[in-house]
Design the sequence.
């Protein structure tokens, strides 16, 4: 029976870690999206430097979480977001309003999908 | 991660159900849960092994989940008769006193040809000599003959043959198994005597040498390399 309890404990532990991971990814995606939205508002007001600074901050936060997320999530999805950040920053530096807006929207959508992918909703579970 | 954990448990349960519905013949020598575990584990390990873009965790989590669930299932099958019968099924009597139980055979999709084959494998050619033929939960057929058809045993004949006991390997492929020699209460002197009696110089020339509890020796000399 000792082994049985060990199995139950392991399952509970894995479920807890998995749920924490859902919460973590959701929080990360929400924070990054909020920062990118703020950057977009700044860019709309022609404050390109502030918009770039906010996007870089978000990118730094993303890079910090990168190690954990690369351990737990599909690398292709992670790479898409990393590329999205680089693309958005490039358009910001070039002060290309329309291109930046489209790239930023794509990046925010990727982050939303990342969070949605982990959420234990019916669409994912089934 | 959570999705992986949930899906693993759900698919595991689904495949067990599928295997149960397929009947005993599909199981082989394993119980349904063991068979499903065996089927899934290799595939799960292979995916992150060959695709480096997939994190190792996505393979590890389902494997550990399967291990835990299989362990829990095996504990439950030991503890609960009802759970065991739900998971593994119940043995089915397909021949009762020489008579075919057609309903049970149909239920288990066990054909007459398969029954004949199993009976032949077990050395039975006449169905009327069978008291019971039982299709076990692991897919094997147990055949019990009628009392009058069973081979006469020494006990029934009033004989008391000596128990040969378990034979132990003293020399295995040219190597002396000291532990077994000591366990049998024998020594090197006895071994040398056996070697001399079989015209060999040392254990390296012996392929197999065993001795049972009655002291009966089996000897096989090593054949020359081809």
Sequence:
């Amino acid at each position: 029976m000792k082994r049985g309890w060990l199995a139950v404990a392991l399952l509970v532990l894995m479920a807890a870690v998995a749920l924490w991971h859902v919460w973590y990814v959701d929080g990360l995606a929400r924070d990054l999206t909020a920062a990118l939205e703020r950057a977009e508002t700044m860019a709309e007001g022609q404050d390109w430097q502030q918009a770039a600074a906010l996007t870089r901050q978000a990118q730094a936060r993303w890079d910090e979480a990168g190690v954990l997320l690369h351990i737990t999530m599909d690398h292709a999805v992670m790479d898409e977001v990393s590329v999205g950040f680089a693309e958005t920053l490039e358009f910001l530096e070039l002060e290309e309003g329309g291109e930046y807006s489209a790239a930023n929207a794509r990046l925010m959508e990727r982050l939303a999908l990342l969070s949605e992918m982990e959420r234990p909703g019916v669409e994912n579970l089934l | 991660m959570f999705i992986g954990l949930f899906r693993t448990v759900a698919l595991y349960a689904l495949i067990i159900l599928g295997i149960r519905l397929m009947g005993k013949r599909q199981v082989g020598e394993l119980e349904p849960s063991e068979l499903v575990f065996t089927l899934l584990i290799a595939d799960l390990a292979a995916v992150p092994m060959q695709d480096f873009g997939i994190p190792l965790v996505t393979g590890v989590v389902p494997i550990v989940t399967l291990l835990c669930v299989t362990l829990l299932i095996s504990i439950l099958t030991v503890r609960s008769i009802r759970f065991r019968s739900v998971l593994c099924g119940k043995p089915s009597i397909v021949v009762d006193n020489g008579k075919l139980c057609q309903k049970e055979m149909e239920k288990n999709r066990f054909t007459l040809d398969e029954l004949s084959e199993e009976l032949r494998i077990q050395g039975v050619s006449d169905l009327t000599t069978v008291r019971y033929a039982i299709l076990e939960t692991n897919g094997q057929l147990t055949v019990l003959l009628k009392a009058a058809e069973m081979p006469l045993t020494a006990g029934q004949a009033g004989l008391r043959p000596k128990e040969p006991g378990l034979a132990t390997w003293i020399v295995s492929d040219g190597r002396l198994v000291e532990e077994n020699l000591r366990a049998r209460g024998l020594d090197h002197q006895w071994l040398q005597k056996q070697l001399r009696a079989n015209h060999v110089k040392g254990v390296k020339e012996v392929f197999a040498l065993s001795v049972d509890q009655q002291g009966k020796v089996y000897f096989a000399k090593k054949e020359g390399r081809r």
